[in-house]
Amino acid sequence: MKLLLTLFALFVLLTAPIAQQSRFFFRKLTVADGLNDGGIMAVAQDSKGFMWFSTRVGLNRFDGFAVKSYSHIAGDSTSFPTSLSRVMSADSSGGFLVGLEDGMLEYNEASDRFTAIKALENVWVTQIIPVNKTTVFLGTHKGLVKYNPLTKKAVFYRNYADSSYKLRTNNIERLNSLLFIASNKGLFEFDIKTERITKRSIPLLEGVGISSVAIDKQHHFWIIANGKNSPLKFSPDLQRYETYDQYFESGKNTLVNITSLLTDHKGRVWLTTQLDGLLLYNEQKNSFDRFLHDPLKVWTPSTNLHTSVYADRDGTMWVGGNNGVNYFDPDRNLFQIIPAFNTEQDIRNRRVARIATEDLNGKLWLGTIDGVVRYDPVTNEYKEWNNREGRTDMLHYNSVRGILCDDENNIWIATGRGINQYLQKENRMIFYTSKDSIPAFFFFSADKDRAGNFWFSSRDGDGFYYYNTSEKKFHSIKSFPGLHVFAGNGGRKIFQDSKGRYWLGFNGTGAGMYDPATKKSYKWQASTTGKNGIAGSSVVDITEDKKGIIWISTFTGLTAIDPVNFSIRNYNHKNGLINNSISALAVDAWNRLWMGTGSGLMMLDSSRTYFTSFGLQHGLPSVEFPEHAASLLAGGDIMMPTQNGFVRFSPKNFTKEHNQLVPYFTSFTLSGKEEQPLLQNKIDLKYDENFFSIGFAAINYQNASGTWYAYKLDGVDDDWKYTQNRFADYTKLPGGNYTFRVKASDDRIEWNCTEQTIAIHIDTVFYKTWWFRLLLFLTLLATGYAVYRYRIHQQEKLLQLQGKAQLLEKEKVMVMYESLKQQLNPHFLFNSLTSLSGLIETDQKMAGNFLEQMSKIYRYILKNRDAELVSLREELAFVQTYINLQKTRFKEGLQVKINVDEDELHKKIAPVTLQNLVENAMKHNVIDLDTPLIITITTSDGYLHVSNNLQKKNMVETSNKQGLASLQSLYHYLCRRPVQIEENSTEFVIRIPLI
């Protein structure tokens, strides 16, 4: 018996490190998140809470949201130097110090720059220990140094107990007023008060250099000695020790290099190695728990090669390695991750979890896509039941979607092709078939009602089947009083509430309810109008909260139904959900509703007002929860399936503890300009720079996405604005002085928080300033005087207007005079008389007609010389006479076509306008029987159109090139519409407006 107990204890001891693999969830920060490079050399936190990481390239600052980089820029003396940094620390006065291999830098937040400390030039800084505002102790390769951050002076303790050597400091551990210095000459103790240094005697390490030292909560000394492959734990007097060689692989080619040693705020001892991952000392077992990278488990570290470890002021651990930073909280990890299988996770979809139950012995039974698994949380042991080619089937089918434990500790299994029952005591699997009145259907779930019946929901057949435990027989829902009305609806879930009502979830047709007390049944489906409809038609899970409200999860949202008044409330992404696909549901002891979604886990508080969401950054193995129900375990734990294993958590461990978050300003962006860092507490803007955005954040590494902000701009916002957005936008602000206020909280309700402010001044637009108002007053006085002067000189201005009228009349007379000059063209008269002379000799009768037509032309001119306008009808008659005279001379060389609308003949035109235009065409173009000049006269759109084909003369003798200009001036006087002149390669067109 003792041997068995010993073997069992040994087994637990050996498997414990494996069982602890999922204890912490490691978040990652890599070059993909903005790091300069992945080679982390040191980690530190400044006084404001920012995390700093030094790499081969430079420094990085992380605020929980984004990484800011600092690196060397050739030619820029203010950029970060090329020297490597292996240590950083905040000093006690709020500054931040960066130790280099050739000096030390101090960060100036106002300028966002680093300043080199002259007193430490060419000094390799290995450790920074702040003591107070005026004292910082530095470990260097030139010994211990006391540095004053206010005066920038440094004091070197060059000689210790033995002045014959200079002590090279590798690492310093502080315990109250004592500094313990790990050096190349051993371990030294320095008293801060007396500034005396003494060497501590360690018999085991006499003459051996020490690379690192740490002190745990029992004041044990943990030492990494040069040449040793594992840590040594010494008693407080350094006389007794323990070794841990068995945890650190060694050999010719496998020497494990311990890169850092740290005791955190709770005295726990952490070690990082270059080959064998991160280790935590287990005080109870006096052994080490090892945390190794597993590419199949997203919650494990990203690497096994680590270089540094750091504990921030909130207890979060930061581990630097060869591919970035891993960080986690060892004391606040809500979720335990249970893989569905412990082997071959990447074949047959064995990562995917579906359903779980707990048996009477505390073992977990896991339904998966590849069979059933029994998992022992104590021993971490897995056992599988699944079907494989070439061996006897262990289940109806490997696809398992429903599982439950009965009162005899037997396991009922609903598969894709039937129902199995595993008898644990007999280690025997029962295959139920149609002979047992249960068909080989596809079953979605296995549930138990208050009468002890086991229900199996199927998409096929009657939809629901149950096993009567007293009869030990299967039945269809058709035989169940009241529920028979739902037969034929494909089933997914059945649930009996605290009042005995049966709630049924259907596979595509909504949900139903039967109340045995009233013998009434009800059914709901999704509604496009949102009235009296549930969120979706395919139901996944159903549960009841402490107030009797029924909650139904569907593929397309969450529904709450009050069975008393049948009021319905639906939830979707518009009123709080992060994803409409809702699956597993569970209500905890505080009446909070937990739900798995397609984008993470959510919790709806007991007031049903606020949602809290959890994602990968909170320790989930996957954000996607498949279409299966949750499991409530005996101790109140909740277990839910994900696409990468199960998550188990205790709701009691989740409390809305309010942590003080201090906001800070991140950026200021003017509309249309690039975002700028906000490094001061006052902003001065021009009057037209009143469109801007203010960025802010708060350090909350555990739940950055869950941080709430409240902000207001005094004088603009009447009340605080609450949001999770990290930017505030303002537009069209009037000039003046404003104060912008912002607070941050990890709880939407709790706002007893530190407030940050920034003063903003916007110049007032000129017409609202005092000087402009004075100028306006003076302008009004001047205007009054001008009005007075206006009245005095009113008569004078009237006379000026009369003079202008006379000038206009004169211009009219001049234009008409130019027109008459065109009308009485002597060249026309000369040509006409010449033609008449020839006719007298040859044809006296035609000469008489010619003379008569000439008389008509000049009679028309004389008749209308004083008239401004004549009718188009008169003008056309006149121009026809003119054309007849010209045809006597040019015969068929001149062709005039007149096509004027009858409706236009009453309209007016200036006298002899047409004659001038026809004459103008004849004057400038060749007229020949072989190439006749064709003139067309038409009307349209209120214009008279006169066009001719172009066959220009080389030279026009009688043209003064002023005729058309005069015509345009005349019509400018007569009409608002202009004369239009167009010319192209074949045609010349003039359009005269009809009046």
Automatic annotation (TrEMBL):
Residues 700-762 form the Two component regulator three Y domain. InterPro entries: Bact_2-comp_sensor_kinase, Ig-like_fold, Reg_prop, Sig_transdc_His_kin_internal, WD40/YVTN_repeat-like_dom_sf, Y_Y_Y. It comes from the Bacteria. Keywords: Membrane, Transmembrane, Transmembrane helix. Residues 817-892 form the Signal transduction histidine kinase internal region domain. One of its GO terms (cellular component) is membrane. The chain crosses the membrane at residues 770-788. Signal peptide: none annotated. PANTHER family: SENSOR HISTIDINE KINASE YPDA. This is Histidine kinase. It comes from Lacibacter luteus.
